[in-house]
């Protein structure tokens, strides 16, 4: 266990070192921060002084050393736009993203396991075929488009006049397929509750939860079908295995066969893939936050790019790197707990 | 009445290309404490026959006809729920490959206890005690620690011992063993076989042993069935069949044993290979490979090509072959010539 | 015991004719299953249809959307033909700048397909080369390449593409980036997604490497480059074929995502993604068609590729690298 953690720590340091070099190289090359800070009217001499003061004229290695030393101490520089420490800006935006991702993961876990297992156990049932059909469509619709469609249907509303309004059933069908569109689709709402420090939560009030609904569904929309298909495929493979047949031959209940013998083995590859997909979630969060103007890290990152706010871009990359390293370690730990053949030393026994 | 009686069992696979008949007219009986061998080449339907007894043949296979009566219970018309109470409890199974049979993510103890708890209302502590006792019976060193180990920590032979222990957990009436030693190292095959045999005798458990190894069958079983292309073609006392096989296929199998070959010569073999079940020859399924027919005049007999042979009594065996009478006549003549 | 003589087939007299490629395809399981699978047929028809229509867009489109003279603010946001207030000149209506939506979608599909195919070709070249090297050479090369692939994958290909796109755009300036956007996007998506190919190829190379034909080739003294490309690579083709379909769909979606974030095609030369983006600003005012019609085209395109990929995977049944 300790060996495992040390190995992971070494790995984490390596990854963070690579990210920091890349991030710093970006910082070094990206535009002229002085331009961003002071604008056109300031004379050249003053700019030069500012450059000198910011240390922008030092050699690359000196600048990287200073950058790394500061970064280790939690100082990622000052955001040009917000004029406050970049880490504070990120800390303010982090909760929104974490809550969004958390809500989506909840949706994914709650729906993918039962639907995946069901369609593996009864592959020929109508409902399974329906789920499979919907999931391939789900995979084919990009996240931002799902988000836009959700906004059109539930936030703007659609009026259907396809059926003849004069007949009773026609107008009933028209009403049935039309939507009112009163779901909020912009930002986090007015009713946030301060938990501690910068953390304001959407999860405590009705209005907050309402604002969370559409973005979290949109963010889950591509990962959920992916996991349904993965769980189904793995489960069907496991169901063909000798040990499942043997479990049935022992006369234990089908419920136990499905949910203890088969599901536990199914989850092993699913956990691995889940770990890889965390990165994809962060990327999709950028898209989702853009569509819904959700004030999280993704939107902040995109704004920072457009404003050439280098310290913020760099700190975002570093923080995302930390998040990846931490979550991957957790995923490996969970995998080790579920799979007895792995002895948390990093390599399968 | 026998403990287990299988009559005219007919099992099919409903595939997209049409139905494939995996078992036809399979009938046999097993008495309490008796040991029965089922032999045949791979694909003959031995394993399917074993799995069909407990209705464990997965989709698209289904039992299309016949009956399986076990101790007064009609197994093939039972509900899944009722059948579950027989599986592992009164009839238990041993699978071929111990490396694949135990669930890799559950501890040995868990896999033993769950079986006990599925059939008896006992505490986990009590179940563990029984499991421990059975592990001792299969002569596993330090059984207490084994209970908390996982399959990957044990060798193949050790795992097969555990599977034997699980088979004996609930003191069953019958154990069906599907090639129980094939996947093991040659050096421990005999050891595991002896253990299984010993425990079956001790507890008076009936054994259905499925194998392609005629040597093992002749040593272990009292009666045997020979299967070919989904059909039983010869059955009777093991001793009789081994010493005096009636069906040309059985003769071929015994002839193919290495010890039957003349030193320095090639081993004997049955020419050709088993036909695919979806494309069986007409008449006797064995006729394209049958030496006896070819020897007569180079052409198969019309009866062999046209009609599926019925079982006839021949000596102490029952055999499904058109030529039995003729073959016996041949042999009698030969014996007379010699004398 | 005499063994009966088995009649030998007269193999000396007629040498079997080697079937042509077409005959082999016609007799293959692939073709057999394609003939029976109506979904696959429909998807292939849609896909080929879209490709033809998109690449023939300069001939088919009613107007040239790249022509700045077409911009007519008076005719902006006109609805498609089935909605009241439509203009008969514009079947699918117009976008916010008054460009004919049908024309611009045709041109946009061409851009999306171009980037999708280009990026996949680049990925495949990089991924197959690196995958072969990693799998065949093993050792340090393998460790280095796969560690790189792992890190890149754990950051997700889209994330890498976004970051690279953002940095490139910021360093080179928006105008320059827009001008060479197609090449930029092919490079970015190609560089971001090569690990998928590399891992698939490596996995099948590792499986193939220990087979006897590779030993035989080595014993004959062939150079490793020749063994890799002429002997091992052909045996890893079916998984490559299967993931290629998925990768084309992914590349098209990635391009759309980048364009949607403003890191892709400019609005003057829009792809489907940038059309969706530009239409999104007008969705609140009720002009849903500017964003949802290109969206529907994108979904149909990607869906037909994904369904084809599903079918291919079922038919070829390769053991794909999971994760």
TrEMBL record, chain A:
Name the residues that span the membrane: 9-27, 100-118, 130-163, 212-231, 266-287, 313-338
Any one of the GO BP annotations: transmembrane transport
The protein's topology relative to the membrane is:
Multi-pass membrane protein
Keywords, A to Z, come to: Cell membrane, Membrane, Transmembrane, Transmembrane helix, Transport
What Pfam families does this protein map onto? Answer: BPD_transp_1 (PF00528), BPD_transp_1_N (PF19300)
**Record keywords: Transmembrane helix included?**
yes
Q: State where the protein is found.
A: Cell membrane
Matching entries from InterPro entries are given as: BPD_transp_1_N, MetI-like, MetI-like_sf
Coiled-coil segments: none
The ABC transmembrane type-1 domain covers which part of the protein?
A: 94-335
GO cellular component labels:
plasma membrane
The principal localisation class reads membrane
Homology family: Belongs to the binding-protein-dependent transport system permease family.
According to UniProt, the name of this protein is: ABC transporter permease subunit
Native species of this protein?
Answer: Vreelandella zhuhanensis
UniProtKB/TrEMBL annotation, chain B:
What EC number(s) would the UniProt record show?
A: 7.4.2.9
Q: Which InterPro entries match?
A: AAA+_ATPase, ABC_Ni/Peptide_Import, ABC_transporter-like_ATP-bd, ABC_transporter-like_CS, Oligopep_ABC_C, P-loop_NTPase
Q: Name one GO molecular function term.
A: ATP hydrolysis activity
Name one cellular component (GO) term. Answer: plasma membrane
Domain of life of the native organism: Bacteria
State whether keyword Transmembrane applies: no
* Compartments in which it is found: Cell inner membrane
The broad enzyme category this protein falls into is translocase
A GO BP term here is: peptide transport
Q: Which Pfam families match?
A: ABC_tran, oligo_HPY
Q: Which UniProt keywords apply?
A: ATP-binding, Cell membrane, Membrane, Nucleotide-binding, Transport
Where is the ABC transporter domain positioned along the sequence? Answer: 4-254
Recorded catalytic reaction(s): these are: a dipeptide(out) + ATP + H2O = a dipeptide(in) + ADP + phosphate + H(+)
Which membrane topology describes this protein? Peripheral membrane protein
| UniProt key word Repressor | no
Q: What is its main location?
A: membrane
Please report which protein family the annotation says this sequence is part of.
Answer: Belongs to the ABC transporter superfamily.
Its recorded name reads ABC-type dipeptide transporter
TrEMBL record, chain C:
Domain (ABC transmembrane type-1): residue spans on this chain:
109-309
Read off the PANTHER family from this record: ABC TRANSPORTER PERMEASE PROTEIN, OLIGOPEPTIDE TRANSPORT SYSTEM PERMEASE PROTEIN APPC
Database matches in InterPro entries: BP-dependent_transpt_permease, MetI-like, MetI-like_sf, OppC_N
State any GO BP term from the record. Answer: transmembrane transport
Tell me where it resides. Cell membrane
Instruction: Return the Gene3D superfamilies for the record.
Output: MetI-like
Q: Which UniProt keywords apply?
A: Cell membrane, Membrane, Transmembrane, Transmembrane helix, Transport
- Similarity-based family: Belongs to the binding-protein-dependent transport system permease family.
Transmembrane stretches in the record are 42-61, 111-136, 148-168, 174-192, 232-253, 288-309
For this record, the Gene Ontology CC terms, alphabetical, are:
plasma membrane
Q: Which organism is it from?
A: Vreelandella zhuhanensis
Protein's UniProt name: ABC transporter permease subunit
Query: Is Transport found in the keyword set?
Result: yes
The UniProt entry lists the main location of this chain as: membrane
How would you describe this protein's topology in the membrane?
Multi-pass membrane protein
């Amino acid at each position: 266990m300790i060996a495992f953690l040390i190995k992971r720590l070494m790995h984490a340091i390596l990854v963070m070192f690579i990210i920091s070099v890349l991030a710093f190289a970006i910082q070094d090359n990206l535009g002229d921060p002085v331009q961003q800070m002071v604008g056109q009217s300031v004379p050249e001499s003053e700019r030069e002084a500012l450059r000198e003061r910011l240390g922008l004229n030092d050699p690359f290695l000196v600048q990287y050393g200073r950058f790394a030393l500061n970064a280790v101490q939690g100082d990622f520089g000052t955001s040009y736009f917000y004029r406050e420490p970049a880490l504070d800006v990120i800390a303010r935006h982090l909760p929104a993203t974490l809550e969004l991702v958390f809500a989506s993961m909840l949706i994914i876990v709650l729906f993918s396991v039962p639907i995946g297992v069901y369609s593996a156990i009864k592959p020929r049932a109508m409902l399974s075929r329906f789920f499979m059909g919907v999931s391939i469509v789900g995979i084919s619709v990009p996240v931002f488009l799902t988000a836009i469609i959700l906004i059109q249907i539930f936030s703007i509303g659609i009026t259907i006049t396809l059926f003849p309004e004069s007949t009773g059933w026609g107008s009933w069908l028209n009403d049935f397929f039309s939507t009112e569109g009163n779901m909020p689709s912009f930002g986090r709402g007015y009713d946030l509750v301060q938990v501690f420090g910068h953390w304001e939560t959407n999860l405590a009030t009705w209005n907050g939860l309402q604002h969370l609904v559409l973005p979290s569904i949109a963010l889950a929309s591509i990962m959920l079908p992916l996991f349904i298909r993965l769980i189904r495929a793995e489960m069907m493979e496991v169901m063909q295995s000798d040990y499942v047949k043997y479990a049935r031959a022992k006369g234990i209940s089908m419920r136990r066969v499905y949910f203890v013998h088969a599901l536990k083995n199914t989850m092993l590859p699913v956990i691995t893939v889940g770990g890889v997909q965390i990165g994809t979630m962060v990327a999709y969060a950028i898209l989702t936050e853009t569509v819904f103007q959700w004030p999280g890290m993704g939107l902040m990152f995109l704004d920072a790019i457009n404003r050439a706010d280098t310290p913020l871009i760099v700190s975002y990359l570093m923080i995302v790197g930390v998040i990846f390293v931490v979550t991957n370690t957790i995923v490996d730990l969970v995998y080790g707990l579920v799979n007895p053949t792995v002895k948390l030393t990093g390599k399968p026994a | 009445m026998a403990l287990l009686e299988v009559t005219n069992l007919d099992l099919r696979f409903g595939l997209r290309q049409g139905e494939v008949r995996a078992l036809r007219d399979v009938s046999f009986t097993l008495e309490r404490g008796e040991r029965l061998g089922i032999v045949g080449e791979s694909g003959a339907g031995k394993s399917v026959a074993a799995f069909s007894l407990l209705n464990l043949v997965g989709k698209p296979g289904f039992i299309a006809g016949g009956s399986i009566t076990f101790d007064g219970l009609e197994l093939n018309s039972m509900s899944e729920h009722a059948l579950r109470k027989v599986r592992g409890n009164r009839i238990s199974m041993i699978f071929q490959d111990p490396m694949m049979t135990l669930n890799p993510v559950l501890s040995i103890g868990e896999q033993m206890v769950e079986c006990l708890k599925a059939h008896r209302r006992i505490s986990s502590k009590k179940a563990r005690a029984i499991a421990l006792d059975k592990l001792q019976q299969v002569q596993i060193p330090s059984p207490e620690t084994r209970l908390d180990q996982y399959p990957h920590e044990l060798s193949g032979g050790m795992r097969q011992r555990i599977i034997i222990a699980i088979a004996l957990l609930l003191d069953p009436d019958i154990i069906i063993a599907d090639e129980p030693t094939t996947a093991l190292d040659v050096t421990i095959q005999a050891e595991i076989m002896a253990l299984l045999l010993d425990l079956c005798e001790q507890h008076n458990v009936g054994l259905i042993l499925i194998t392609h190894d005629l040597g093992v069958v002749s040593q272990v079983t009292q009666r045997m069935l020979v299967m070919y292309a989904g059909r039983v073609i010869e059955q009777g006392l093991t001793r009789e069949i081994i010493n005096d096989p009636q069906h040309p296929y059985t003769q071929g199998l015994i002839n193919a044993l290495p010890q039957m070959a003349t030193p320095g010569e090639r081993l004997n073999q049955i020419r050709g290979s088993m036909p695919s079940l979806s494309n069986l020859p007409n008449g006797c399924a064995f006729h394209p490979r049958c030496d006896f027919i070819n020897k007569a005049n180079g052409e198969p007999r019309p009866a062999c090509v046209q009609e599926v042979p019925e079982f006839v009594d021949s000596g102490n065996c029952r055999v499904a072959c058109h030529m039995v009478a003729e073959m016996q006549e041949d042999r009698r003549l030969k014996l007379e010539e010699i004398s | 015991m005499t063994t009966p003589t088995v009649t030998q087939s007269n193999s000396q007299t007629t040498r079997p004719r080697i079937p042509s490629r077409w005959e082999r395809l016609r007799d293959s399981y692939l073709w057999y299953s394609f003939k029976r699978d109506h979904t696959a047929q429909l998807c292939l028809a849609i896909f080929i249809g879209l490709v033809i229509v998109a690449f023939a867009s300069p001939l088919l489109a009613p107007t040239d959307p790249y022509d700045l003279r077409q911009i007519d603010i008076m005719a902006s946001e006109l609805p498609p033909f089935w909605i009241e207030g439509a203009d008969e000149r514009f079947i699918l209506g117009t976008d916010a700048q008054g460009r004919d939506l049908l024309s611009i979608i045709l041109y946009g599909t061409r851009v999306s397909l171009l980037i999708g195919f280009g990026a996949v070709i680049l990925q495949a070249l990089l991924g197959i080369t690196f995958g072969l090297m990693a799998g065949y050479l093993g050792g340090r090369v393998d460790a280095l390449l796969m560690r790189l692939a792992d890190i890149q994958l754990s950051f997700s290909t889209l994330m890498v593409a976004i970051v690279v796109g953002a940095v490139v755009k910021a360093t080179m300036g928006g105008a320059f980036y827009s001008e060479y956007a197609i090449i930029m996007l092919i490079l970015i998506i190609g560089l971001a997604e090569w690990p998928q190919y590399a891992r698939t190829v490596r996995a099948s190379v590792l499986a193939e490497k220990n087979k006897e034909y590779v030993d035989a080739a080595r014993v004959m003294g062939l150079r490793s480059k020749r063994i890799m490309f002429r002997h091992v690579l052909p045996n890893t083709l079916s998984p490559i074929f299967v993931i290629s379909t998925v990768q084309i769909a992914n590349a098209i979606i990635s391009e759309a995502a980048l364009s949607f974030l403003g890191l892709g095609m400019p609005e003057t030369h829009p792809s489907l993604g940038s059309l969706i983006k530009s239409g999104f600003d007008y969705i609140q005012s009720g002009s849903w068609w500017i964003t949802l019609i290109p969206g529907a085209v994108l979904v149909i395109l990607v869906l037909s590729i994904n369904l084809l990929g599903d079918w291919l995977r079922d038919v070829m049944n390769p053991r794909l690298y999971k994760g």
